[in-house]
Each structure stands twice: as C-alpha cells, then as structure tokens.
Write a structure and sequence with these properties.
By secondary structure, the chain is an alpha/beta fold. The protein is built from eight helices and 16 strands. Strands 10-9-8-11-14-16-15 form a seven-stranded mixed sheet, with helices on both faces. It has a five-stranded mixed sheet with strand order 1-2-3-4-5.
C-alpha cells in the first residue's frame, strides 16, 4: 500500500518535470496519504524529509530500490545537521538544479536547508514577470538570493539582503550560474529592519520588495521578531521604501497565523493598496502553510 502511494504521488507530478524544471516536490505528506513524509527532487537527487526521528523501513527499502541518490533529514527547525545519505552516490559538493529555466546551486552538505525553497516556485515566477529593466528590487531575508536572480534575469537591478555572508556568497554563485554579473547588483549584509530604516532615511525607494522572514529571529541587540506579532511592523518599514506603483511580495510559513489575520497585518502595514492572495504550487496537496500576498502600492494621481 505504501509503495503504491509513493509511486502514485510521483506519477501525478511527472508532467511538471521537463528540460526547464528538474527541482520539484514529489510527495507532500497528508496530501498524498503519507502523513509526515515529504520527497523533493533536485536534478534527479532525492531528499526525503520526515517528522519522525526515523524513516519507515518500507519507505527506506523502496527508496533504496530507485537507483538514484537519496538523502534523508528530520524536519526540525532546531536541527543544524546536513541530511544523511541513504542510497546512491555521495553528493559532497554543490550541483545545479533547474526551475522554470533558472539555475540554482544546491548543496546537500550545507546544513539543514539545501539552497532553495521549492514551495516558492510560483512566487519566483511572479517576481520575474513583474520585474524589468530600469526597475529596482529589494530581496530581504534573501537566503541564497533565488528571488534576486529571477528579478535580475528580467532586467531589474537587485539588492540582496541577508545576515549571513555565507548565504550572500551563495547568492553571488547563483548569479554566476545564470550568466548574471553580481557586480552589477547590490549585496548587503545585516539586519533587515536596520537596513529598511536606513533606506528610508536615505530616501531610497524600490519598485519591488520581497518579504519572507523567518517565523522567529533576534537582532544583534537582542530584539525579538515573531511573525504572528510583528509582521505588520516589517511591512510598514518596507512600505516606506516602496516606490509609488510598486509591489511587495509578503510571505510567511508560520502555521500559527491564520490567513485572515495575516492579511489584516499586511493591510495594517501597507494601507490603501491592492492586496491579492497567491496560491501554493499545485504539487503541494497537503497543508496550505505558505501564506503569500501580493501588495500593489497606488500611484499618485
């Protein structure tokens, strides 16, 4: 029965894999009748994630029989270790995976996260579609800069902002992987809240801003940010740096936050604009945990 569910889930998503995309979710837990089991493919390398401390023996046996590289990790945000190899060849160095024709550097030995969050696939497409030459796009909490790459490929000048120099370097690698010159763009190391206040003081504005913060963070002065309590403050700071007629992509995967409450927080921080809810990609059949809102700031009349 488990074997049939695994095969059926993957077959349902086979139409999503082509010459432009080889990185998607193949199995999505409850949505595929496999609670707590998730499988992603990155250029034919598989990463299975579970909420349990161990992998079901039947699932492990099935994975080992698939003749491909398979790694496993336990879903725990407090976990820092890299995934564990369970089948196939060892992936000890970064490699390239494709999504919508865009190259992303993936690394199974980089710790808990492997370089790209696949649930943001449609949002990355939307950012690229709404970016163009002459536009400026700010990507906050940027991680490895996937949104920045999409905006830059559309011709925009991007600013990639993250606390980690390691991730900023990774973002530059992603620019290079797409024949983009990172020297034509900006990379800022530091706290998003501090930088947004600085941009506002400088009168610097952006045509597009991406807000996808961690659910919990603490700045260098010890101030705590919790999405369910403080997201509207973040939106307000970003909105002050948004050019008239510009857009913001506001996201959170905080499961504690109801979508209606999230929309209210975004509306509080960015009043008067048009707010559109965005759906998760079709391959995510389980919990709709990722909440995404597209905010458009009115142009002056």
């Amino acid at each position: 029965m488990i074997k049939h569910k695994l095969q059926t889930a993957i077959e349902k998503r086979s139409h999503l894999i082509d010459e432009k995309t080889n990185a998607i979710r193949l199995i999505d837990g409850d949505g595929d009748g496999l609670p707590g089991v998730f499988l992603d493919t990155f250029a034919d390398r598989w990463l299975v994630s579970t909420r349990d401390d161990s992998l079901d023996p039947e699932i492990r046996t099935w994975l080992e029989a698939q003749a491909c590289t398979v790694y496993w990790k336990r879903l725990d945000q407090h976990e820092k270790d890299s995934p564990t190899q369970i089948a196939g060849s060892t992936e000890s160095t970064p490699f390239i995976a494709k999504e919508s024709g865009v190259n992303y550097q993936i690394h199974f030995q980089a710790g808990y996260s492997q370089g790209i969050f696949l649930d943001q696939r449609l949002n990355r497409q939307r950012v690229r579609a709404h970016s163009s030459a002459g536009h400026t796009v700010l990507n906050t909490f940027a991680y490895t800069g996937a949104f920045s790459v999409c905006a830059a490929l559309a011709g925009a000048t991007t600013t990639t902002l993250d606390l980690s120099q390691v991730y900023l370097n990774w973002a530059r690698d992603n620019f290079h992987a797409n024949a983009l010159d990172p020297e034509q763009h900006y990379f800022c190391k530091g706290d998003t809240f501090h930088w947004l206040k600085r941009f506002a003081r400088q009168g610097r504005q952006f045509n597009g801003i991406i807000l996808d913060p961690p659910t919990f963070s603490r700045d260098d002065k010890g101030k705590v940010f919790r999405v369910e309590k403080d997201y509207h403050h973040l939106v307000a700071l970003a909105h002050a740096c948004l050019a008239p007629g510009g857009w913001m992509l506001c996201c959170t995967n905080c499961r504690k936050l109801d979508p209606r409450d999230f929309a209210q927080m975004v509306n509080t921080g960015a009043p008067g604009g048009k707010i559109t809810p965005l759906a998760m990609p079709e391959e995510y059949h389980g919990e709709n945990y990722l909440k995404s809102l597209w905010v458009e700031k009115d142009s002056p009349h």
